[in-house]
Amino acid sequence: MALNLPQSVQKINLLYYSLIVVVLGTPLWWYTTDTYRAALPHSQITALTEYKSVLNIPVAVCFNPSDVQRSRVEQIIVSLKPFLLSRGGGGGRVIYDIVLNLASDCGKQPFSVVFTNDVARPSKAESSSQGLKISLEKVERMIADVAEDIVQYIELPHLQNHILAIDDPSLHSTLQDVRNAMAVATSYNILVSVVNPDPAAINLDYNLVEGTKLYLEPFIAELGKVAEVTYQTQVIRYVKLPHRPVKSGDIYYLSESNLPHVINPIESKLGTSTTNDINLIIYLMEDKYSPLHIKTVGGEMKQLPSFLSPQFGAVLLYDTSNKTSIDHSSTFSVLLSQLKQLLGLKSSSSAGISAKEKYLMESRATLTHILRSTDTLNSLIRLVYSIPNMVIGDHIAEQVSSAVEGINRAQSALMEGRLQEALQQSSLARNAAEKSFSDPSILALLYFPDDQKFAIYIPLFLPVGLPLIVAYLELLKQWKKNKDKTE
Asked: Contact 129/108 with Cβ under 8 angstroms?
């Protein structure tokens, strides 16, 4: 039943309800639907992009006092500096500062150079237990070549290629060492697997516990100073190769082009699922395929049947003929050499990690963490500004600030030569940056279209707003009608 209220009362009611909606309802709606966005250090992140990291590479310089005076060695260091600076630029976002310092403990430092006349071939630099031996004769005649010898000795081009590949993915297809190396991570899981295709025919004593304890654990202990490392062992049975070896004379061989297919049936049985897994596989070959070789693309027969699979691991095709157990010494010598290549080092038959290898691993990891953290933070900033209604919680802002501070500390420590501290800070920064970027509260809003918001708000505002709009339209009609009567 309609109420015939006086027009003045209707106007008062309309004004009353309008005030409630505008004064009370609108602020309440605004407050409850406002997107909270904690402040992010945008300017600091932008500054990180424009800043170049400086890697201080210390090289100890020693000399024989009977060959040369100290003052002369100091002059040589000054003369080499411009040549080393020109090679340290390298392009990209990193400057490599090779610093030569006089020292008395050459051989104990990651990099050592000895100036002496005790060199078999004066025109050639020689590696020794004390470091790189360079003749004074070569210094006098070919100072630029001496600088290049030092650059190659510290493996600077190798390190530069790995760092440049972060911004230039094409290097992964053109440079073998870059392609073989696993992506730098803050943690790794090493899985050692023995694959026995026919347990009835191949009956060997694996004893992986002893092998890993003697050869793998010492390596992991040193590697653990660079990243968190865990390892596991397992035995897989009844996995046949998709391609049988081909007989050629008295030998058998597998073509290099077929090696990727060898991994496929094994990979499905490994049980690994993360990108940080490094697989070391010992595949037991039946003795009827002995001796086994790998035929390269160029037609050369490779006697040691082992190979690397980029971003996966290493495989050793183990010859089981006339054997009752796995020879851990020869087996892990091959696998550890390949593991070093997977970690971005050059192939080496030494069991442990030398001071030089440790420095290179720490340097590569530190620089990668810094650059990756910076890229992740920049991606987060672009994402935040591209989605205005994205909620940025205080915990995300804290993680971002922690990442920025970690990067700054790492860069300062790197420039001052405190590499281990720089590695620790850069690792913390990368973890914080990745956590902030992949936070569930951010990911949930990436796929929340605007039409869903209207579907939520319309049922709430339409029942309240429509009667007010109709009432104001009626009031406008009545005002026009009264105006026409007056005229």
From this structure: no
| Distance from chain centroid for Cα 185 | 5
H or E element at residue 485? helix 450-486
Q: Which two tokens stand for residue 400?
A: 């971002």
Share of the chain above pLDDT 90, in %: 28
Is 161 within 8 Å of 178 (Cβ atoms)?
Answer: yes
Contacting residues for 144 by C-beta, under 8 A, at least 6 apart = 83
Distance from C-alpha of 341 to C-alpha of 182, rounded to nearest angstrom: 9
476 backbone dihedrals φ, ψ, rounded to 5°: -70, -40
291 prior amide bond cis, ω within 30: yes
Q: Tell me the residue ranges of DSSP E strands in 103-149.
A: 112-116, 126-128, 131-135
What distance, in Å, lies between the first and last C-alpha atoms of the chain? 35
Nearest to 271 by CA among 298, 221, 232: 232
Q: How confident is the model over 93-130, as pLDDT tens digits?
A: 899 999 999 987 777 789 999 888 777 677 788 888 78
Residue 371, H or E segment: helix 355-386
pLDDT value at residue 383: 87
**282, 318 contact by CB (below 8 A):** yes
The confidence score (pLDDT) of residue 10 equals 66
| DSSP per-residue letters across 308-349 | EETTTEEEEEEE-TT-SB--HHHHHHHHHHHHHHHTTPPP--
In this prediction, residue 406 carries a pLDDT of: 96
CB 365 within 8 A of CB 227: yes
Q: Do residues 368 and 394 lie in contact, with contact meaning Cβ atoms separated by under 8 Å?
A: no
